[in-house]
Amino acid sequence: MSAVSVTGAGMTTGEAPFVEDAREAGRLYIYQPYELYSEDNHRAWRTLYARLLPLWRRYANDHFLGGVESLCLDPERIPRLEDVNRFLSPLTGFRAKAVSGYIPAFQFFDCLRRREFPTTITIRRADHLDYLPEPDIFHDIAGHVPMHTDAAFAETLVRFGECAHTAAEIAAGIPDLETRTRRLTSIVRAMARFFWFTVEFGLMCSPAGLKAYGSGLLSSFGELRHSLESPEVQRYPIQLEWAVNQTFEIDHYQPLLFIVDSFDHLFGLVGRLEEWMREGKLNNVAPGEPAVNPGDLASFLR
Question: Are 198 and 248 in contact (CB under 8 A)?
């Protein structure tokens, strides 16, 4: 075992030469060099898992808890993606796919359509566990992937991917560049907001009361409890028109969260999102966050 795998930066977010080299070379899809994880990296995973496990049992929805069990995640060590996929793929056809970092919006949604989940392979520093503005392997594997074991939720993600193709088709049919850019920017912003308030920060009804299913909540030690117990959080049954017009910011706990009845309910909402897209109802959603960068727009036009 090399020295870097024992005591060095290893695969720490922002400090991993393997990932930085891949980015500089333009390699988006990569493999997981498991031998490069340092003991500090594994300690970060172990600490995060130990802190969140009792909160999952109290605040997470049953589908997530079943997914954690089905994936046989190791509480002590960062998982190998090949092991995760060995348990995941037979259940829903999904698989975790290692990436070097940010993936343009269309490519991300298209991966979901193909039942592939772009997965970050670095992990946050062991001494900075509470907040990270970008995904890491704990957020992706412990926050997202357990939900991918549920058939209804998996089909919802595939439907999101199909929405991206619909957006691209609509954009391709608009000859005027200015009009095409404006409408596509609005559609992409609407998709991003809806994904944020559901897949990332969604709440769900259950016989035991409200539970979290959003990965941003399930991978956050502080925000998971806050989302369901704080009187400062507004929680409303989701309305599609509200979600696509609601701005959000990523650098603080979310003050507004939306509730779905079930994953069948969520699947139906994604279907309506696509219908609204075709009907032009997403052409002029409210301005504001999130910003839509040129790379995301270009990914829909290629």
Answer: no
Virtual CA dihedral for 32, 35, 41, 45, nearest 10 degrees? 60
Q: What is the CATH number of the domain that holds 274?
A: 1.10.800.10
Q: Which of 139, 186, 215, 223 is catalytic?
A: 139
pLDDT digits (tens, 9 = 90+) for 98-143: 999 989 999 999 999 999 999 999 999 888 787 666 789 999 999 9
What are φ and ψ of residue 191, in 5° steps?
Answer: -60, -45
Contacts of residue 228, Cβ cutoff 8 Å, sequence gap at least 6:
59, 203, 210, 211, 212
Sign of CA dihedral 131, 69, 96, 81: positive
| pLDDT per residue as tens digits for the range 252-275 | 899 999 999 999 999 999 999 999
How confident is the model at residue 1, as a pLDDT? Answer: 35
Q: Give the orientation angle of helix 177-195 with respect to helix 263-279, to 10 degrees.
A: 170
Question: Which DSSP letter does residue 199 get?
Answer: I
Q: Which of 219, 220, 227, 299 is catalytic?
A: 219
Tens-place pLDDT, residues 153-178: 999 999 999 999 999 999 999 999 99
144 is catalytic: yes
First to last CA, the chain: 43
Residue given tokens 């309305």 in the structure block: 239
C-alpha torsion 269→118→94→186, nearest 10: 20
Does residue 5 carry a catalytic annotation? no
Residue 301: CB atoms within 10 A of its CB come to 12
Domain extent, residue 101, equals 3-301
- The domain tally of the chain equals 1
Q: Which of 144, 186, 220, 227 is the catalytic position?
A: 144
